[in-house]
Amino acid sequence: MQAEEYNRRGKELVDYISKYLGSIRERRVIPDVKPGYMKELLPDSAPVEPEDWENIFNDIERVIMPGVVHWQSPHMHAYYPSLTSWPSMLGDMLADAINCVGFTWASSPACTELETTVMDWLCKALGLPSFFLHHHPDSRGGGILQSTVSESTLVALLAARKDKILQLRAELDQEVDDSILNSRLVAYASDQAHSSVEKAGLISLVKIRFLPSDENLSLRGDTLKQAIQEDRRRGLVPFLLCSTLGTTGVCAFDKLSELGPVCEEEGLWLHVDAAYAGSAYFCPELRWSLQGIEFSDSFVFNPSKWMMVHFDCTYIEYQRELTNHHLNPCFFPTKVMILIFHIRNKFVTSISAICGVFRELCRRSCADYVRAEVELCIMGGAVQHRAVQHSTWLPGGDSGIAQICVNGSGNNSMHFFFFNGEITL
């Protein structure tokens, strides 16, 4: 394919995408296929000779679409939102064309500088502390993009582990292998925390204690304090708490205002997982759960869930620099804050998308979108409660963060209401 054909085919694909998203509500959300369906539709091996683009293009509807779960559909209510937007898709196109590899500032200055600038935009828009900013006198770290919150949790745990091991070694009179010190470490999370916390513990070979939440499914300061005291008596060394703002299961919020002071007093790294609910902080009136964020060492959320930026895209802020390298024009410490050597082009794509969303839709539009979703949530909860005898719960009371938790009982009447379209949000 040459430039002339690319121009023609590109226009065709843009038209297809526009038509697809414009009529997506008419498509079945969940595909009616069985595992292995595609094997019969594609050859056993890659073609030896090039195929005509028309055949490739036609396979989108013939092969791909029959097996797609249409996450952008207004009828998609499973899992969690995964939203995109026109500015996000345009940013994706440009970044793929540039296709740079940003492992240092010198390898692509615009890559690094756009990231630090846009990360500061996000920090300010969410109302996070100024020490998370790249460009601020109070800066003690900065924000970067990761692929997923799971990866971000692992990086935060590894950083906290190394920080605590260095501290323990400095306090000892004799040389002790890091593996011995690592075996004494223990981290904490709520029993409502995402499974990626447990996975991070398995990868890093540290103990994770999942602490019981209260009647609102929130982890409280007294519970953490008691667990720390118990573990110290057992000879363990507490080093990290993964607190969740908007849990995956029920969108509950740990009591950060109680947990933060305990972490500071006991010397624990406080990592805040706001994967889903983080976008709600565009709205000042929804920042009630952020009280205590000034005690955090790292904060992460997914713009790809609720900010209309394509997947995968994860924003994480670190209060501390994770490197001892001196910052200079040829080296930025962001590359040691991720698990891979370079800032891959997908991250550049996400940065371009966030920049496009901010500049085209603006902060006000992002906040208004969140407010509209929250209003729909409150309305939907009221409709459900009237329609079927069951209990509903909006996390955070009447200001639920756009998630309705249903405790069904007795029969499947609620399922019939949803599938028959008698309840439409």
From TrEMBL:
Listed GO CC annotations: cytoplasm
Molecular function terms, GO-annotated: histidine decarboxylase activity; pyridoxal phosphate binding
InterPro entries: Aromatic_deC, PyrdxlP-dep_de-COase, PyrdxlP-dep_Trfase, PyrdxlP-dep_Trfase_major
Key words of the record: Catecholamine biosynthesis, Decarboxylase, Lyase, Pyridoxal phosphate
Record Pfam families: Pyridoxal_deC
GO biological process: catecholamine biosynthetic process; histamine biosynthetic process; L-histidine catabolic process
Cofactors named for this entry: pyridoxal 5'-phosphate
Membrane-spanning residues: none
EC number: 4.1.1.22
Subunit structure, interactors included: Homodimer.
Similarity field: Belongs to the group II decarboxylase family.
Protein name in the entry: Histidine decarboxylase
Gene that encodes the chain: hdc
